[in-house]
Amino acid sequence: MKLQLQKVLLATMAGVSLLSGCAPLVVGGAVVGGMVAVDRRTSGTQLEDEAIELKVANAVSKELGERVHLNVTSYNRRVLLTGEVRNDADRSRATLLAQSQENVKDVVNDLAIGASSSLSQRTKDTVTTGQVKAAFVDAKDLQASAVKVVTERGIVYLMGRVTAREAQRATDIARGISGVAKVVRVFEDISEEELKRLSQPPLSR
Length: 205
Prior knowledge:
Elements: H1 2-15, E1 31-32, E2 35-36, H2 43-64, E3 68-75, E4 78-85, H3 88-99, E5 106-109, E6 112-113, H4 119-138, E7 148-152, E8 155-162, H5 164-175, E9 182-189, H6 192-199
């Protein structure tokens, strides 16, 4: 029990989005369970994703202000918007603002229309993210660092560049976590051949 709790805490610290609703800034290279996570994005793309998260969050906050509780996650220039807005017009506007930012390739808007989630719900979401990450670390047939996890109102969003096999495995694991209401896949599909290429260690000189 203690070991499992330690894994959840490690996974939570490795990349859980902030409870305040600000754009999450944790990217590849985090230490999870004693292993250095290897990101399937280039270092340049990781930096771009960080910048995109900040730019989108700032643009939406500047225009919509307190009318939106927004979480922005960018992976390989695909932007995921989660949280809550007051009406459909604000939801559509958030999409346009995100799409207008430099280097954004695609926007997945899953903002719910309604009141902002409570602090207790956001705390539960943080714990759920940590549990999913810990379960990925435990799985021997899944590279945990390849999947980015975001949780909002009990809905788990999975992002990353993965094969169909990895996508299904990650989905099955997330669905098995207590408290998960639904799993939404925001994956970029790659072939098994591409995975092999990405998994090869860099050539030493």
